[in-house]
Amino acid sequence: MVMAEFNLVSCRFHSVLFQRNLQKLRMLQFVYSKEDLLERTLTPDGHGRVQLSKFDEVLRSTWDEAAENGYFRYQLEELQTKILPGPMQYVVQLNIKRAVERRPAQNIVHVNQPFNPDLFNFTKVKTNEILLELQPQRNGNDSTVINDTQRSNHNAIIINVSPLEQYHVLIVPRRFECLPQSLSEDAIHLALDTLLLSSQRSFRVGFNSLCGLASVNHQHFHGYDCQYKIPIETAAARHVIGQCFELADWPVRGFIFQLKGSTVERTASAVYKVASVLQRKEIAHNLFMTRGDELNPDGPITEQTVRIILWPRHSSFGVRKDAASVNPAGFNVALCELAGHIPVFLQDIFDAMTEEMAKEVIRKRSLPLEEFEALKDEVREVFR
After folding, report:
1. Cα–Cα distance between 273 and 262 in angstroms, integer?
2. What are the tens digits of pLDDT across the range 14-36?
3. Per annotation, catalytic residue among 168, 218, 220, 341
């Protein structure tokens, strides 16, 4: 197995104004190849723990260092968590600070809204918010060198300064190309790679489109750790065509894919085929990647795989609403909520929430059956 490498590239800023606090700013390059991608998680030890991968070690150590140095907007303490009684087994967590202290959201009016360099974007984050950069070795090419002509290949992993869970990061493909918040085949490939670099079943990756509650119009995915079993890991599915399935019994209608029996490249291509239909039709969407049960509608579940779920949804226009005064439901419906992990920002809602209450809010995001069936017909066409 080719071990992942990482190199420290140091830069010094020399300024009279900052002589007392002069420090070395580091850019950590994490170089990996196909051999570092873990399609199956490692076997737990006698205590039920799975050994961290090299990627896990680097991500966690740099994230913990950022937390210790106070680079987040708040200190993420152990979150109050409960599993709602009922068939879904929703995981609900109370996280008041994220709603109060997160970065202001942008005004979003179109799924295909162009990138605006005048607004906040991830080229403007502080250097100490950048944990590392991912450097894939593909087709025998080593892309480890970063200079002025190669900065567009900088696949950054940045802390989410308002974390919803432990090790919450933003994955920003080709950061300096300033791509709008839309899915591309290359970006989906990188997101899948990131998930597979981790040995932990608890590590998840997701994406919110514009009008699907993305708050920044600059291409990025979320990665975070949730130690609880999330309902989407075992959700039933029906085959549609090729690598594409649909969720069989879920509050919001959606498409689902699996890595089993395929490759990262082919899976990313299949997901993008469906995403491109949604983008062309200006349909908002959310994507979630996690390890879970294989999709085997006609037989027993015998293996684990990586699941990729893509939900088309009703659009949410304008500025994301996190305040209690404008969102009395106590939570938004985006990538993690659709998967069954629900961060709540109101104590009374957290205390009173039931499965039916959660479903009622989440169902409102689903496309009507007729519209989803018509969409399935278009999806079949792109796979033929």
Report:
1. 15
2. 232 233 232 333 458 999 999 99
3. 220
